[in-house]
Amino acid sequence: DEPAPVGNYDQRKREEESRLRGIEEKLLVLVLDVEDEEEDDDDDEEDVVTKTMEQIPESGTATYMVISVFKGEQEGDLTIQMGEVLTILSKNEDGWWLAQDSKGNKGLVPKTYLKVPSTITEIDATDVLSAMGAIPAGFRSSTLSKLLDEGNTYRASHYIQPELSQSKLSFKDLFRDPDTGKVRQRTARTSLTLTLWSCKSIPTPGVGVQVLSRHIRLCAFDGTQVLSNIHTIRATCNANNVKTWSFSPRMTGNLPSLLDGDCFLRCNSDAPELGILFELGVTYIRNSTGERGDLSCGWAFLKLFDTNGAPVPHRTYELLVHGGTPYEKDIEVDPSLTRGATGTGMFQQMMLSRKLPKLFLKLKSPNVRTRSQLSALPDTLVGSLSSIHLLVLHRQLLADILLMDRATMQNADLICSPLLATFPEIVDQSDLLDALRVNSVAGSRLRDLPLLKRKFVRVYMDNMYPLLYSADLPPPRWADEMVENQRARVIFNGSLEPFHTHTPDSPPRHQAFDISQLTYDLLCMAQ
């Protein structure tokens, strides 16, 4: 069965070697030609960059510019100054990057203090708009919007997942009471509710910029890094007074959670500077180019603990809105408001104070029922108060399935649970979460927990699960009125209530099936 021997083997071998050497020589010639062309292009580009930005060293994509002063607080931190250019040596997932300054000093710095330096081909949109006079000098690109665009790290879908312990063999924040069968309540350092009332004297973009959305993004913040998910609330304003923003407008039917100014915040961080960061923002489109973007109209910070570590009182607060980013200090939103204000009298100060942009809100202590619901949630989470009962039910189902239904606590096999696998997607889409809330609100006060869980699962699987993967439902796009209206038509389907039943003449269309729609992967989902 052996193959017949090859005739003239030595001669054919020499011919093959000669042919391969010829190909190799041709490839070497091509490589040399390409390298010569690239060197010429690099020399030209290097000359242009050197002439325009001499302060930026040659280090490619690993070069970042410091946007605010950071003083190292622990051993291994690198103290940096605003405007300084750093070389990034490594990027850690926790947001602390290893950097090297121009003097050769190395250390860790928070990534939120850095930005990619602009070149001729990469210019910040805010620089262009500011040069055109279309926005005030204190406006910046939205800091929190950029974090949301990085993935789900700063979204609620990430924070509702259980957190594994250090050993990775148990859960750190998810326990079940064996006597009641309920999720064991946990006390967090901060657990409160707040109501956004209004924003006043907020400057508006000028001619050539159309505002698509006015909103506030809020999160737990310690002056250095974001400590929670980022929650967004859309503001409304009167056409005759666009500088005043309001929240929770009166309307018929249920108030969408996106417009609801009533929020909750839980955070278990022990940072002494722990507080709430509010970023006032607008989503815009340039009329001339059609370019979309997110601008920060200023920010405010409410510290939640005093110098002695005691919680601040729950009352109404009037917060001054600052310009720039949360990492910049003493920047005014609109310097023209205070230009020429030289009077020191009380009347002059009062008149000046009325012109400055401000945010009005109220911190509140939750009632007994709300406090009990908050204690069942993850240690860190920010969200709408209207959806809290849905989050609690999801948490209860997590505890039942992960702590009771698994064969052993060390079992990490895929779990067949469409609800657990897909509920995080619902949480990040406020219109779908509202539809679930409207349909399940009738049973939200049932005291029979098993009955309440069965009703929740039935409503979810009969209505939300098919809707989430409907081919007629377009992907969400922030501040796109056409997409939002199309999604609303699919969700309500011409009915006053969500989940209008399809007829035989118009059966629903679904996306292609994927196994991730059915299975909950504990190792991938848990933090």
TrEMBL record:
SH3 domain mapped to chain residues: 59-119
InterPro entries membership: NPHP1, NPHP1_SH3, SH3-like_dom_sf, SH3_domain
Organism: Salmo trutta
UniProt superkingdom: Eukaryota
Keywords recorded for this protein, A-Z: SH3 domain
GO BP annotations, alphabetical order: protein localization involved in establishment of planar polarity
Gene Ontology cellular-component annotations: cilium; cytoplasm
Family matches, as Pfam families: SH3_9 (PF14604)
Record has Glycosyltransferase as a keyword: no
Protein name: Nephronophthisis 1
Gene field: nphp1
